[in-house]
Amino acid sequence: MADPARARKLAKRISQIVASAIEHEVKDPRLDYVTITDTKVTGDLHDATVYYTVLGEKLDIPPDFAGAAAALESARGVLRTKVGQGTGVRYTPTLTFVADTIPEESKRIEDLLAKAREADAEVARRATGAQHAGEPDPYKAPREEADDDELAEEESRS
């Protein structure tokens, strides 16, 4: 098992090499809007998982995830060769490309937070001018201690 620091360095270098190769060397138009977000390398340095995301051509056009996945799959051999040449490790790791779900998850979390803010605003709106149910002071006041003379009289009666 390799040193975890070495695995992190190799993962970072693989990200840089793959991103540069996609931008400058692989001539597939389906990869124009692909961004490499992260890379994870196994402890034995034999397998690398490259995470990517795809942006749309314009804001109103949805990204082509299927086309990008197919283009990355077809360019896997070329990219692995580039990684082998750029890293100089004894065994060039196999590359697996996985679509990064962080942008969709962050959007979902942002939507949930917006709903929570709306619910809080509704509660605050309803609370303005509201009155508490029951007495103004719901706690009972502590009983006054009776004088010693009154206690003595009560005990003598019983």
Q: Which short descriptors sum up this protein?
A:
158 residues; alpha+beta; 5 helices; 50% helix; 14% strand
Characterization of the model:
With 158 residues, this protein is of the alpha+beta class. It has five helices and three strands, in the order αββααβαα. It has helices spanning 4-24, 65-74, 76-87, 102-127, 148-157; strands at residues 34-41, 47-54, 94-99. It has a three-stranded mixed β-sheet with strand order 1-2-3, with helices on one face. It is elongated, with a radius of gyration of 33 Å. It starts with a helix and ends with a helix.
Q: Distance between termini?
A: 86 Å
What is the SS-derived class? alpha+beta
**Total number of helices:** 5
Number of strands: 3
The biggest beta sheet reads: 3 strands, mixed
Q: Residue-averaged pLDDT, rounded?
A: 86
Shape: elongated
Over all CA atoms, what is the radius of gyration?
33 Å
Series of secondary-structure elements, N-terminal to C-terminal: HEEHHEHH
Strand content bin: 5-15%
What does the secondary structure layout of this molecule look like, with pairings?
Blueprint: H1 4-24, E1 34-41, E2 47-54, H2 65-74, H3 76-87, E3 94-99, H4 102-127, H5 148-157
Parallel strand pairs: 2-3
Antiparallel strand pairs: 1-2
Helix pairs in contact: 1-3
